Amino acid sequence: MYAFDTIAITLSPTFVVIGVDSCGPTARPSYATGINIGFCALFLSLYSILRKQPSNLYVYFGRRLEKENSRYQDPFTLERFVPSAGWIVKAWEVTEDEILSIGGLDAVEYKNISQMKLAHVTGSPPNPSHFTILVRAIPKSTEESLTDTIRNFFTNYHGSSYLSHQIISRTGKFQKFMSNAKKVYKKFVRIRVTALDNKCRPSLYRCGLCGVVSNSFQFYHSDYNGKRTDLQHSDTRKRKECSAAFVFFKTRYAAVVASKVLQTSNPMQWVTGIAPEPCDVYWPNLWIPFGQLWIRRLATLLATIVFMFLFLIPVTFVQGLTQLDQLQQKFPFLNRIPNKAFVIQFVSGYLPSVILQVFLYSVPPMMMMFSTVEGPISRSGRKRSACCKILYFTIWNVFFVNVLSGSIISQLHIFSRPKDIPVHLAKAVPRQATFFITYVLTLGWASLSSEVLQTFSLSYNWMRKYIFRLKDDPNAVPSFPYHTEVPKVLLFGLIGFTCSILAPLIVPFLLVYFFLGYLVYRNQILNVYSSYYESGGRMWPIVHNTTVFSLLLMQIIALGVFGTKDAPVASGFTIPLLIFTLLFSEYCRHHFNPIFKNFSAQDFIEMDREDEQTGRMKDIHMQLLTAYCQLPPPTTNTEETYYDDSVAGDAHNQEQPIF
Amino acid sequence: MYAFDTIAITLSPTFVVIGVDSCGPTARPSYATGINIGFCALFLSLYSILRKQPSNLYVYFGRRLEKENSRYQDPFTLERFVPSAGWIVKAWEVTEDEILSIGGLDAVEYKNISQMKLAHVTGSPPNPSHFTILVRAIPKSTEESLTDTIRNFFTNYHGSSYLSHQIISRTGKFQKFMSNAKKVYKKFVRIRVTALDNKCRPSLYRCGLCGVVSNSFQFYHSDYNGKRTDLQHSDTRKRKECSAAFVFFKTRYAAVVASKVLQTSNPMQWVTGIAPEPCDVYWPNLWIPFGQLWIRRLATLLATIVFMFLFLIPVTFVQGLTQLDQLQQKFPFLNRIPNKAFVIQFVSGYLPSVILQVFLYSVPPMMMMFSTVEGPISRSGRKRSACCKILYFTIWNVFFVNVLSGSIISQLHIFSRPKDIPVHLAKAVPRQATFFITYVLTLGWASLSSEVLQTFSLSYNWMRKYIFRLKDDPNAVPSFPYHTEVPKVLLFGLIGFTCSILAPLIVPFLLVYFFLGYLVYRNQILNVYSSYYESGGRMWPIVHNTTVFSLLLMQIIALGVFGTKDAPVASGFTIPLLIFTLLFSEYCRHHFNPIFKNFSAQDFIEMDREDEQTGRMKDIHMQLLTAYCQLPPPTTNTEETYYDDSVAGDAHNQEQPIF
């Protein structure tokens, strides 16, 4: 029980606040620090052992098993139970290119990122999303069917480049129907694939059922695909159509043109945009009428702000609970417990943190829900939006609320006097330096070791296997939780920048955190997480903006510090620094931001020409027509992992041991 | 002297502030009101007389003389010296369509504006700007010339639609050279045109030298044009080239596509955008390197803000001057003047306003200069930018500074406490209601009558004619000063909205102002001002935004009023009102704003098809090549007004008398 609680506490970002409040500012942090360093070491040692246990293979090597189709042996050796640091060496040795090819552009936490982004666009294999636009708000006509409306419009105005289109059906019924069809199909057709050449599987095919280039499988697959298309077509007449469709073009350039140009004189009709990658499409949101989007966006913005401030209520409540006498009032049975002082102190130290922890764990799903309601059309867009929301939430509720510590709500009025903010921050931030150092140790180090140990995944896997006696589920490979990890890392960056002026002691702790993080995240991307889609490094602008914000905050605090220390010359020199930071940010926004949002005509035209010259264009067009299949999201890449163990195992895997 | 001063004072927006400060809030306004109503009536009567004097023809009928090429007679009749209201009837009778065709889309100060904007795009004659894009930041190559670089790039990536291009030369030397050439040319070639058919002159030809469809003139013109092109070409090798060019396309759609798509992977190279109309191009700014623009924009923003706040210094200084004893300290000679009290009171009342007036007259040129430095490529863009700046300036320095009256700088801290703003405004605005009513009378009514009288133009014309003995200058027809008039009208809208809650007495005064303004501006657009270019109603979003801001401010004040009156229910109901206003604004931004910025593919493709079917496309292409001529701005439409009086005079003019 004690251990379990402590694990929860090591993950709690507010535990130390409470510790500090109830037991004085120095006693508990050193205690917590000791515990946490101990747990860090323990977790990392545990990981180095547990990762070598075959039963945990799907927890720690999900991605590699999925991609490399490994047949694992189970040799019993003593080495399996000895802690080792081999994984650290491996994570260190992986090159940027390997990480890029495995985890996608967002995974490389790099200075020439914009060049890489361009190389990514031009160097990647033919991507169906480059040929496809998503058209929304198609006007409904009583005279002709939706498909005729679309065909007529695009043959009329984009006749030379229009290839085909695919209407999107209202999700729900159709999706259920297709899922059922897939299950039935899987029962009847057991496919045995001898070997699947990794190289023959372009990224076009990542999404499960859409097609795999392999001889024996091809037959069944095309057979199934035929059935699927028939079903889909027969169903088209019955099911409810959305006023949205994917429209395919003959060239990439034509698609980008159609996505950029205002189609009609009514800006709320025939709204076009480049389509997300097939596996990145968030199908349930495509039915949302385009005219609703701006309302949804405003509503979720409002809801997020309200949620951010409502979160202060449990924090205040819990801060009240930490007072010993109040605790006894609330829980009278505490009076009857023997060894009262120790128990009460224990409960007053840990009960609030457990309550807070429950609230804190609700944040990522809550923000993800807000982002879903917001109506993004892609999974990556949803994750990006949730990432921003969690980032704002974290910066507000961890950084600012702690800096303005004490009764938080009564301190809010500081923000209504902008002029006093620098001085107030300059006074408050160093006061909280001890807390932030402990925070780096607790949430930072511990969360990294917890991340590498995959606590939840491990327990879930253990329960599945030994309690419910289920087999390994190879489909349950998660994708990298950018929306929870990116805000964490950025928060530590912010803490580092802001505390470094008056409490430079925090820097070595942060350096250890970042170094450990570098190793852990590389290891996780390499082994654990799978990337189903490529969002094209669009997390980077968020990282950039937050870093600039951190820098500005640091400089504002510096201004306050020099102000309180009566150093007007130093204050004076800080102001140009602020201006230069803003100028730098503007410079970057003008010079690099556009390529994260747009594709360039030059690149696309040259890619089109190359494909035409090599004769690949016909194939690409053929593949395009089946690329977007309205099926449940890509945890269902069953074909790829449905091979019999006895025949599987490829060259790559044999050359390189998995551990 | 008295009259002259008073004229200056009637135009001074701050005169009454001082009046109120020095003599109490009630005495002076009624005095000023009387004077001003009197001057209004006088000015309007004067106008109705002066407009009938042949010597003032170019002051009051500049546009009509320019467009209709009128030959005026000089019959001496008594009627000329009798005040009449005929112009009011005429201004009232003009239809929207006439105003639209004469003054352009910004002149119709209308609810279905977006429909008209669309009709304007589709219904207008072939516009060279629709076929042209402006390319900036063309990379310099050591291997090939700039013209080859451009040709190669566009034939490579837009080969099917690229028509031609025109390099822009560094302004200054070339412009001077061309002006001189034009003068010499004018001396040698006196063109006599018998009659110029108005219908044969599409808007394509508005810009003086670029071409006029008329037989006898055509010969000389094309001769000149030939020389001009030769000169231009021979000069090309010598003069300094900018890394910018106009690129012409075969179709409108191709141009809009090329302007919308990111050209290369470097967003700071080959930057494209739809070109302004030929006469709208602001040539001196085209040489500015694209990479400088964002710095210029930031710098002018900063400069504008600094200027807005620096303006408080003369205001404070002048407010100090109005104190009698201070005035005697500064000007000791006042003690020696007989009838001291009257003179001092007169001077303390009027001297400050004259000083302020000098400062106020510096605002529009100053803002225009800032807007020029900002680097817009079109004259309309520059005017729009100046309009915004003057609008902010006026709202800040007239509305807010007066509301926060007293020692202005010491009141600034109100803005550092956002929560208190509603209550403070609710207290301050009604206090200033008397001032604002007088303000509507002085600046509003008087400025309209001064506008219709064209005080400056009249004096200038008089001096030219009777002192310097110069002939009428038919080229000096001004364009409508949107950048000074739009902010005025919007400010009165703001005052109306904000004062109407607690001082509804202002409404009838404002109604009279708006009605008078409606007549005056219609009259002026009809007779006085010429529109050289069409910015496509892009003033409207500014008008919309300011009106929404006024509404919001009104609602915030209402919130404060209900707050001070302890009416929480009413306050509660104001908040949804605020939210709905914001929602309405967002709705408009999404539904209507895009068409003010973009052209739709549908419209352009259909216009292209129509032109191709009727065979007009070849002609349009021919005309395109000479449409953009790098000459001094279009006050130089000399050919059009260079006709001999004895043969001029067209049917339209004969049917409709000019007065």
Descriptive notes:
- By secondary structure, chain A is mainly alpha-helical.
- Chain A has 30 helices and four strands.
- Chain A folds into two domains: 2-101 and 293-597, no CATH class; 125-292 and 599-655, no CATH class.
- The first copy, chain A, has helices spanning 2-10, 15-23, 27-50, 57-60, 62-68, 86-93, 96-103, 113-123, 146-157, 173-188, 215-236, 252-260, 293-310, 312-321, 324-330, 340-361, 363-374, 379-403, 408-411, 421-431, 433-453, 455-467, 482-499, 506-527, 540-564, 568-591, 593-597, 601-614, 617-627, 651-655, and strands spanning 132-136, 162-169, 241-249, 271-274.
- In chain A, helix 20 packs across helix 25 and helix 21 (433-453) packs parallel to helix 24 (506-527).
- Chain A is globular.
- The first copy, chain A, starts with a helix and ends with a helix.
- Chains A and B meet through helix 12, helix 13, helix 26, helix 27 and helix 28 of A and helix 12, helix 13, helix 26, helix 27 and helix 28 of B.
Strand order of the largest sheet of chain A: 2-3-1-4
Structural domain count of chain A = 2
pLDDT below 50 for ≥5 consecutive residues: which ranges of chain A? 1-29, 69-81, 103-108, 189-238, 633-659
What is the number of helices of chain A? 30
Distance between the termini of chain A: 32 Å
Q: TL;DR of this structure?
A:
By secondary structure, chain A is mostly helical.
Topology diagram in text:
The structure is a homodimer of 659-residue chains.
Chain A: H1 2-10, H2 15-23, H3 27-50, H4 57-60, H5 62-68, H6 86-93, H7 96-103, H8 113-123, E1 132-136, H9 146-157, E2 162-169, H10 173-188, H11 215-236, E3 241-249, H12 252-260, E4 271-274, H13 293-310, H14 312-321, H15 324-330, H16 340-361, H17 363-374, H18 379-403, H19 408-411, H20 421-431, H21 433-453, H22 455-467, H23 482-499, H24 506-527, H25 540-564, H26 568-591, H27 593-597, H28 601-614, H29 617-627, H30 651-655
Helix pairs in contact in A: 2-3, 2-16, 3-21, 6-24, 13-17, 14-16, 17-18, 18-23, 20-25, 21-23, 21-24, 23-24, 23-25, 25-26
